[in-house]
Amino acid sequence: MTARDRDGGRLSAPPSADPAPEPSDERTARALKTWVVLARAYAAVARAVEGQIARHGLTTTEFGILEALHHKGPLLLGEIQRKVLVTSGGITYLVDRLVAKGLVTRVPSPDDRRARYAVLTQRESSLIAEIFPAHAAFLADVLSTLNEREHEEAAALLRKLGLGAAARTEAPR
Fold first, then answer.
1. What is the structure's pLDDT at 49?
2. Range name among 79-93, 97-111, 137-151 with the lowest pLDDT average
3. DSSP state of 21
4. How far apart (Å, rounded) are the C-alpha atoms in residues 64 and 84?
């Protein structure tokens, strides 16, 4: 007997499948709507930024690493990992790619033989200093639909949302 047979010709989910939860109350419906709006806004801004950064032959994550090194100076790989939110294996791979492109070098830590600092090459230091202002101006233009007050409110609300989500997902269940 198929799912179609059991349900009088209508196709239904097999008995073992969990049905998708229905938004049973206003709180859930509000959360779902907020999530969709947030995801769509992020996707639109991310596409714009990815296109702008790709013109320089970089991914957004590579650019984030270079930007962190430009503003903070030499950083240990673990410090970069926390700043650009990638896995430990991911940061090693990304820094290796930047080294291969001649944009970053690795320098041993004087304090720990196992640790390595990532450092911008002179060429990249000049390049990032040149392209970062245009990138910042591009972001300002992309986000210009918000006025100053809305920027502050959005930043505060997104920070609150991020901290709340982190607290719920990092707490033991």
1. 93
2. 79-93
3. P
4. 6
Task: List beta partners, residue 47.
Answer: none
A 10 A CB-CB count for 144 gives: 9
pLDDT digits (tens, 9 = 90+) for 66-88: 999 999 999 999 899 888 888 77
Check: CB of residue 39 under 8 Å from CB of residue 33: no
Q: What is the amino acid identity at position 34? A: T
Q: Is 118 exposed, middle or buried (0-12, 13-18, 19+ CB in 10 A)?
A: buried
Q: In which element (H, E) is residue 24 found?
A: none
Concatenate the DSSP letters of all residues of 127-164 into one string: HHHHHHHHHHHHHHHHTTTS-HHHHHHHHHHHHHHHHH
Domains parsed from the chain with CATH numbers: 28-144 (1.10.10.10)
pTM confidence score:
0.71
Give the pLDDT band of residue 113 (cuts 50, 70, 90).
confident
The token pair that represents 93 in the structure block: 């791979």
Interacting residues of 142 by C-beta distance below 8 A, sequence separation 6+: 45, 48, 49
Provide the residue count of the chain: 173
